[in-house]
Amino acid sequence: MGFLRLLQAVLLAAAAAAAARAPAARAWGEEGHYMTCKIAEGFLTGEASAAVKGLLPEWAVGELAAACSWPDAVRRQMPWSGSLHFADTPGDCKFSYARDCHGTKGEKDMCVVGGINNYTAALQDSSSPYNRTESLLFLSHFLGDIHQPMHCGRTADLGGNTIVVTWYNTTKTNLHKVWNVNVIETAMNRFYKDDMSTMVNAIKHNLTNEWCREENQWAACYTPTTTCADKYAEESAELSCPAYVGADHGSNLEDEYFFKALPVVQKRIAQGGVRLAAILNRIFSGKNDDRIQSS
Ligand SMILES: *[C@@H]1O[C@H](CO)[C@@H](O)[C@H](O)[C@H]1NC(C)=O
Ligand SMILES: *[C@@H]1O[C@H](CO)[C@@H](O)[C@H](O)[C@H]1NC(C)=O
Ligand SMILES: *[C@@H]1O[C@H](CO)[C@@H](O)[C@H](O)[C@H]1NC(C)=O
Ligand SMILES: *[C@@H]1O[C@H](CO)[C@@H](O)[C@H](O)[C@H]1NC(C)=O
Ligand SMILES: [Zn+2]
């Protein structure tokens, strides 16, 4: 490897490691990705967990959750990957693969659903030329993104990015970021002692109580030939509709909006985690039933 490539690799690893360490707000935001992957880790079979650990970069120190924001950290260095983080729609709150899964210049399959299918297939195929570490990190990250309703929002406002709002009269933000970051950080601050593992535990508590009946269905549409990512995008597109209500450009969002969004955010993180685990279990331990195994 040439010096420049080496330097680039070192800088990338450092940026990714810093991104993984710092709980500070960024693109879901880092907390959302961390929690989605943390929940997935808890549902992996022993076999899948060992395979995942074997693929993780060294700086993740054996923790999938620590590496799940990597695709955001390298988005600039890999500009082609940008459109794989989302799947916006014309505004009908429905997702249609044929219509909506393309890049900004119309490149077919270049959306979050295409990305999930791509990296699932790559990991399943031992002769795939793609880097398996990168495939794992992209897949794990995109399972988080696809569950964030504003990642399947309207094309016209870039999934809420151009809708500027204030959060509790103090923070200038936008509707996309409200869902990525602000709701989670306000919840952490108010209810979870600013501690991500406390919030993860609260979500896990619901997984073993509140949601334990429906949970078996969450991963159930997985078939040998698809990842059901279409369904996850359809759900998010549908959830994006009410998320736009009461959040016009220039508005101030506070308790009313926060308490409407929080249960949705928490459930989507849970679903993303459970589904990621089901996909990884299938890839790495050939598990063929759709039931989730706790470990
Ligand atoms: C599939 O993965 C490869 C390798 O990272 C990438 O070049 C290609 O653009 C990806 N395509 C999709 C639809 O994700
Ligand atoms: C695979 O990707 C990771 C992360 O970008 C990188 O550190 C590693 O060197 C790559 N492996 C190969 C064999 O290219
Ligand atoms: C935000 O400003 C509005 C209008 O001035 C006020 O009614 C509301 O109580 C403020 N909210 C907070 C959380 O300070
Ligand atoms: C637990 O479930 C209840 C009922 O669906 C919901 O209101 C609450 O937000 C959930 N809490 C967490 C931490 O997921
Ligand atoms: Zn992303």
Topology of helices and strands:
Elements (H helix, E strand, L loop, with lengths): L2 H19 L8 H13 L3 H10 L8 H4 L2 H4 L23 H4 L11 H13 L7 H14 L18 E4 L3 E4 H17 L4 H13 L3 H7 L10 H16 L7 E2 L1 H31 L10
Parallel strand pairs: 1-3
Antiparallel strand pairs: 1-2
Helix pairs in contact: 2-8, 2-10, 2-13, 3-13, 7-8, 8-13, 9-13
The protein binds 2-acetamido-2-deoxy-beta-D-glucopyranose (4 copies) and zinc ion.
Would you give an account of this structure?
This protein is 56% helix and 3% strand. A three-stranded mixed sheet has the order 2-1-3. Helix 7 packs antiparallel against helix 8. The longest helix is centred in the C-terminal third of the chain and has 31 residues. It is globular. The N terminus and C terminus are likely disordered. The site of one 2-acetamido-2-deoxy-beta-D-glucopyranose (NAG) has 4 residues, from helix 8. One of its GO terms (molecular function) is RNA endonuclease activity.
